[in-house]
Amino acid sequence: MTDRDNTYRIDIVDxxxxxxxxxxxxxxSLESHKIDVQYHCREGFCGxxxxxxxxxxxxxxxxxxxxxxxxxxxxxxxxxxxxLKIKLGF
Length: 90
Ligand code: FES
Known about the structure:
Blueprint: E1 8-12, E2 17-20, H1 26-32, E3 51-55, E4 58-60, E5 72-73, E6 78-80, E7 84-87
Parallel strand pairs: 1-7
Antiparallel strand pairs: 1-2, 3-5, 3-7, 4-6
This protein binds FE2/S2 (inorganic) cluster (FES).
FE2/S2 (inorganic) cluster binds next to loops.
């Protein structure tokens, strides 16, 4: 369920909590808050944006082709479907 302003809360471990729109990719939402996320292809095949998902769920806008562990997501091609807790990989 979104917050009252139709956004999801994204808790980034050891940094800040921001909001994300369900209409944008997670990468776009993080960038809109000036959060530095590594990326390259922005299409789900290079794996450069790989991020640890600690809580919550996402849905993919395209089938991710990059290798991911079970606890990882690709912010460039997914959107939050509820509040998330993530750990950025740098
Ligand atoms: S930027 Fe390439 S998989 Fe996300």
